[in-house]
């Protein structure tokens, strides 16, 4: 059964909850990755490039805004999202034939 941080009375309980959250995050990242692949499939016949700077800026701003709203360090989470974006663009570039794999 899921516990809140305040309900955890031991490090073992904390670790169980962190592991649960890490697993949930990976599931969400996998879902996000599926959308990245589908985006490349849609971009190809539309003649769109993998890297769309206006969208990159929007996603980074959204990450920053969401981090701030959650009371998290916006610089840190924007940096994480910047890495996600770079990785996604490279994957799309390969799928679109913009680079050799």
TrEMBL record:
Keywords, sorted A to Z: Isomerase, Lyase, Pyruvate
Cross-referenced InterPro entries: Chorismate_II_sf, Chorismate_mutase-related, CM_dom_sf, CM_II_prokaryot, Isochorismate_pyruvate-lyase
E.C. number(s) listed in UniProt: 5.4.99.5
Chorismate mutase domain residues: 5-96
Entry annotated with the keyword Nuclease: no
Example GO molecular function: isochorismate pyruvate lyase activity
One matching Pfam family: CM_2
PANTHER family linked to this entry: CHORISMATE MUTASE (PTHR38041)
Name of the protein in question: chorismate mutase
């Amino acid at each position: 059964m899921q516990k809140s941080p305040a309900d955890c009375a031991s490090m073992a309980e904390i670790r169980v909850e962190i592991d649960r959250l890490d697993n949930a995050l990976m599931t969400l990242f996998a879902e996000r990755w599926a959308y990245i692949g589908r985006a490349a499939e849609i971009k190809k016949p539309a003649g769109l490039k993998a890297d769309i700077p206006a969208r990159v800026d929007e996603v980074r701003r959204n990450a920053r805004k969401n981090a701030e709203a959650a009371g998290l360090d916006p610089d840190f989470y924007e940096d994480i999202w910047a890495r996600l974006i770079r990785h996604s663009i490279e994957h799309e570039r390969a799928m679109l034939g913009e680079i050799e794999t």
